[in-house]
Amino acid sequence: GKVLYERKLYKESLDFFITLESSNAINLYVGMNYLELKNYKAAREMLLELVRNDASTEAYYNLGLAYKGLKDFEAAEKSFEYAIQMDSNNTDAHYELGYIYFKLKDKESFDKQYAKLLDLDEEKAAELLENSYKLPPKLTKGEGDVSGTGNGAGTITTFEPRDLSN
Hints:
The protein has helices spanning 2-6, 10-17, 24-36, 40-53, 57-69, 73-86, 91-103, 107-120, 122-132. The protein is an all-alpha fold.
């Protein structure tokens, strides 16, 4: 099942995993396959069950992705925050939490997540800006002025968000 998942054969991977006896590892892969198949409700249900039994950073991160897919940004925010509490260096969770703050129009929290992500992984931080705002690719710490102040401080004030509702 794991090989099928890594080969992006998600339906086949899911079909394999659901025939096995339930375990935390199996349930995580079932949830991840549902995510990849964009069945966010099924993913949420499987991952909610998983976090009740195995409150791991990976479980909360994937639960956040399920909530994000369902456009329940408040629940996604909490899930990503839990994932970060368990692993403060989880760059994927910081990225997703920053994106959720963007969707919630919480500029101050977005800026904090961006700054934390910039400290952890400059490329991932640049990707967050690219995917949230109309910016040229590969903008990193010290490059350009994203604050509108002329000092390259790294806070967002002057760019218009993309329409990401599609």
